């Protein structure tokens, strides 16, 4: 069993829909990261969380340390949000990555 | 200019050839990492370096070697490339301490025929 599990693996939605991507992990961590990988391949960091909730524009990330679970939400989704979203956990000064969720937003 | 650069961006080579992928950063970070990404798999750590004199194996270091020439430069070598090393390779950097936010290069797409 992978240390970091994401669901769903693929998600297709209509423009404007509320999107939720989930991440569960099985080990103790110092922080959890959400990353975005664009179709061209580049990877950017969206959020780092060690507790609670963070918001940036239409993106919201939450974490429940006790349940070892995090969610990434996108409100009012737009085709430009189409990308692979990757969850990663920080442990022993290294990151362990989930396999990613491929999100496609249809106009 | 990009903070983390990788060269080449794309490379096609043949089995048995020696290949070097280079990574440079202007962020002034001590820590540098090499990952590979394969379809359906998460990013996997090949090697990492926490400063110029420090080199550590990651989870999939077999068949690879690295060199940390300076704080800003970290190179990955495939001494004798094989087809299952075909993948997307990323370099990343981070500051020591803290929650380990990493900054990624644009990736190198390597194909071994």
Protein model, in words:
The complex is a heterodimer of chains A (107) and B (113). By secondary structure, chain A is mainly β. Helices cover 0% and strands 62% of the residues of chain A. Chain A has strands at 4-7, 10-14, 19-25, 31-37, 43-49, 52-56, 59-64, 69-74, 83-91, 94-97, 101-106. In chain A, strands 2, 4, 5, 9, 10 and 11 form a six-stranded mixed β-sheet that branches. In chain A, strands 1-3-8-7-6 form a five-stranded antiparallel β-sheet, with no helix packed on it. In chain A, strand 9 and strand 10 form a beta hairpin. Chain B starts with a strand and ends with a strand. Chain B is globular, with a radius of gyration of 13 Å. Chain B is built from no helices and eleven strands. The mean pLDDT of chain B is 93. With 113 residues, chain B is mostly beta strands. In chain B, strands 2, 4, 5, 6, 9, 10 and 11 form a seven-stranded mixed β-sheet that branches. In chain B, strands 1-3-8-7 form a four-stranded antiparallel β-sheet, with no helix packed on it. In chain B, 35% of the residues are buried. Helices cover 0% and strands 54% of the residues of chain B. The A-B interface holds A 2, 4, 30-31, 33, 40-45, 48, 50, 86, 88, 90, 93-100 and B 40-45, 48, 50, 58, 88, 90, 99-104, 106-107, 109.
């Amino acid at each position: 069993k992978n240390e970091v599990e994401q669901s769903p693996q693929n998600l297709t939605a209509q423009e404007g829909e509320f999107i939720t991507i989930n991440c569960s992990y099985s080990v103790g961590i110092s922080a959890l990261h959400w990353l975005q990988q664009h179709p061209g391949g580049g990877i950017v960091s969206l959020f780092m969380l060690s507790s609670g909730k963070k918001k940036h524009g239409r993106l919201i990330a939450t974490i429940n340390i006790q349940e070892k679970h995090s969610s990434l939400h996108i409100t009012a989704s737009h085709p430009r949000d189409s990308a692979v979203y990757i969850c990663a956990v920080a442990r022993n000064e290294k990151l362990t990555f989930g396999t990613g969720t491929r999100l496609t937003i249809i106009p | 200019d990009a903070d983390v650069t990788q060269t080449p961006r794309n490379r096609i080579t043949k089995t048995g050839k020696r290949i070097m992928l280079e990574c440079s950063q202007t962020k002034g970070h001590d820590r540098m990492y090499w990952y590979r990404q394969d379809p359906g798999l998460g990013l996997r750590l090949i090697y990492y370096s926490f400063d110029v004199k420090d080199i550590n194996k990651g989870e999939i270091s077999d068949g690879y070697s690295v060199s940390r020439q300076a704080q800003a430069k970290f190179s990955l070598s495939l001494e004798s490339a094989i087809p299952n090393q075909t993948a997307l390779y990323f370099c990343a950097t981070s500051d020591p301490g803290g929650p380990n936010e990493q900054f990624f290069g644009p990736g190198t797409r390597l194909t071994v025929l």
